[in-house]
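Lecture notes, part 5. Sequence design as translation. It can be helpful to think of inverse folding as translation between two languages: the language of shapes and the language of residues. The source text, in structure tokens, appears below.
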């Protein structure tokens, strides 16, 4: 069995915990291991916070979060309507910034918490896309576990 949902959210800080709670609730209901759910919820929070902070000017007031739970994997995508990443693509730094740095940790954290990360721009139009996936572990007797 699979679960799919998509949210169209305002670029407002209050949208970040909303997306996180929906993901956690979905995973708990499906029977995903709490440690995996937590890792994905932190990664989602970081991606949403980036969309809120960097996703464009006031006229670009929304971003989209899509989540797919399909058998053994969860894939999450966060897309905004801002300027996107600089030409030539964006590379996730190999290590986190200095401990006292106020910015720059989010993409590194996503990379550490997920199994696969893709960072790029929407083809043919403005906006950044951050997608990541993780192999799921299931609680015993999980209702939606793949057989």
């Amino acid at each position: 069995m699979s679960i799919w949902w998509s949210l169209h959210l305002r670029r407002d800080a209050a949208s970040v915990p909303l997306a996180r709670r929906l993901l956690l609730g979905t995973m708990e209901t499906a029977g995903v291991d709490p440690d995996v759910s937590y890792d994905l919820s932190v990664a989602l929070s970081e991606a949403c916070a980036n969309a809120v902070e960097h996703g464009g000017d006031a006229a670009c007031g929304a971003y989209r979060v899509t989540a797919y739970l399909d058998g053994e994997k969860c894939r999450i995508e966060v897309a905004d309507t801002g300027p996107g990443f600089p030409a030539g693509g964006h590379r996730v730094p190999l290590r986190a910034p200095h401990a006292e740095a106020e910015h720059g940790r989010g993409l590194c954290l996503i990379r550490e918490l997920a199994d696969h990360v893709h960072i790029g721009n929407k083809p043919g139009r403005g906006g950044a896309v951050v997608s990541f996936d993780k192999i799921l572990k299931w609680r015993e007797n999980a209702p939606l576990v793949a057989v």
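The translated text above is only one of many valid answers, since several sequences can fold into similar shapes. The beta strands are 2-10, 62-70, 73-80, 116-121, 128-135.
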